[in-house]
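Async update (no meeting this week)

Hi team, since we skipped the sync, here's where things stand on the single-chain job. The sequence we agreed to prioritize is pasted below, unchanged from the tracker. I ran it this morning and attached the output directly underneath so nobody has to dig for it. Comments welcome in thread, and please keep replies under the output.
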Amino acid sequence: MRVLIAAIVLVAAALAQTKDAEKFEVVSIRVAAPRNMYVGNMKGGPGSSDPTRFTWEYAPLRSIVMRAYGVPPFQLVGSGLEDQRFDIAAKVPAGSTPDGLNAMLRNLLIDRFGLKFHHENREMAVYELRLAKNGPKLKETDLSIATPDGNGKPIARPPDIDGFPSILPGTHAADARYRNGVMRLSFGRYGIGDLAGQLSVELERMVIDKTGLKGAYDFRLEYSREGLTPMGGPPTVQDPAPSLFAAVQEQLGLKLESAKEPVDVLVVDRIDKTPTEN
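Output:
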């Protein structure tokens, strides 16, 4: 299963509560009928094969706010945001960017849901990512590797190995396979700050890079998702694999330690659970 890592590494964006210029040309948003889905189904939009059409089926209101404002779950405060789900179908202006799409979602929330919010710092439990006792087990990326061949054509993606997805040599990328409760991730040209962002999403808690490592690295990570947020339901068979905490230490030579730090959070003051009419 391919995991949307990009969706996975979330960064703060558009923190000011002002209307952006970008808006959908046409948009329909309706309360979604109950269905057997754990996560919503998002298709199209800028950067896809269908850039001018964007659909998001069974989207939780919390997820819409997270996507629009670029905040992970632990940095969003507001009750009842999971209670309602929506089907969104929109026409996106030609030439729009992914950031522009997020601005359109922000306008949608403000115009149709009456969203009001503010930011504040709150002391929260976090994890600090530090060097383990024997140091890191990371391979620095060979930045001399060129992705095109001598004719300027892209090098073919290598085959997957040992259940891990392949990464095109020299590229900044991450991909994952999830099977029977075990996650196998491959990272290429990844900084430790990028890894901290990925771990933040998986652990639903801010992970702060305290390693001091500044390079770009190629590495893999395999761990059991037991005890973590389910992905589409429980596995039928559980493969043997270490916990995420053990995997980070054993496979990467790093460790996660609990701490408390002030964290910027987006606090929803008001949001209507039913949008205005299309």
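Quick observations from my side:
The helical segments are 5-8, 61-69, 98-113, 192-203, 244-252.
The chain is about 20% helix and 30% strand.
Reply here if anything looks off.
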